[in-house]
Amino acid sequence: MPDSPLTCIDLWFRAGSSSEQPGEEGLAHFLEHMVFKGSIHHEAGEFDRKIEALGGSSNAATGFDDVHFHVLVPSKVVAPALELLIDLVLKPALLQDAYTTEREVVLEEIAQHNDQPDEKVFQRLLSTCWANHSYGRPILGYEQSLRASSPAKMRAFHTRLYTGQNCCISIAGNIPKGIENQISNSPLSQLEKSSPIELPHEGLGKPLFHRHRQEIDIPRLESTRLLMAWPIAPANEQLIVMGADIATSFLSEGRRSRLVQRLREELQIVEAIDMDVTVLEKGGLILLEACCQADVLERVEMEVHKILKESMTSSPSQQEINRACHLVKNGLCFNLEASSQVAGLAGSQALWNRPQPLLNPLKHISYWSSSRLRDEIFVQLQPELCCTLIAKPADI
What we know:
- With 396 residues, the chain is of the alpha+beta class.
- The protein has 15 helices and 9 strands.
């Protein structure tokens, strides 16, 4: 949009919830909140007022692996916005009064999260298949850990992880001249000189996947859920991740996919059925979720198992492969239409040492033939290799 050019500035750190040590559970997300409560140079609320006065907006997000803070501003005000963002993130005030007040906000967020039936089901699945790993606990953390925390403890977390070796800045959109010099002369350039080495601890390594079957009752759950999970390669194995995307699109995306066509269109025994790929730095998951009535659950599970086993004997046709590949390609391309999306993907890739052209993963599509999907992906997506969770409404 040449008449209204926008630029996104996205500041990333390897400081997600998986980097929390015992007793720090929830600090990564809580720190995201506290960053916006003022820096040593700006009082609480001043950053938001100044960014909005520039015609921009700001936001942040904490994940398992990383956290990022971003602003979207008119291109002509990138320089002052960048200065504000760097100061906000690198120099948080972490004042006691603000800390105490904001902790209650975060605790309320945890309470609301724990009160959502769908969230409880998903968290139970993660804690079951990734027991004893940081990926298996909530990003929001635990009430007990947060109540025992302090500004000093949070500052130590910030000092340990918000370092040069853990940092990446990504800028997308209309990029003004001279921005490199501004970054070079900013506090960001000083991080490399004093970056401490992050100490490894239990829960940071590759997650050990647990095959398990469990049934639980969840109050206020609207329908019975069948959830199945399989382990997948970490994010840096992009060829395998692309194969998983193609396989799940073939199985569950759209009315012509095998699971949807059979269970929802033909048999009409599910309200919805879907598969997703959760990509993380130390190892991800392929997730299947089917929603149905309790009296047909056994049949739904039987049909799902049957289709998964058929994937080993009845390979996808070339037409089905082409369709799945187009869906995957379109999904990536359509997620790069805004400068904030471009900055987000570029920042994440660079943060984890995968700098590349943004559409580079598409080169892996041509590798995946019907036989390769069968021998390398579908062979792993078998019922006996998964973690299964059955969630039922508590009053049934």
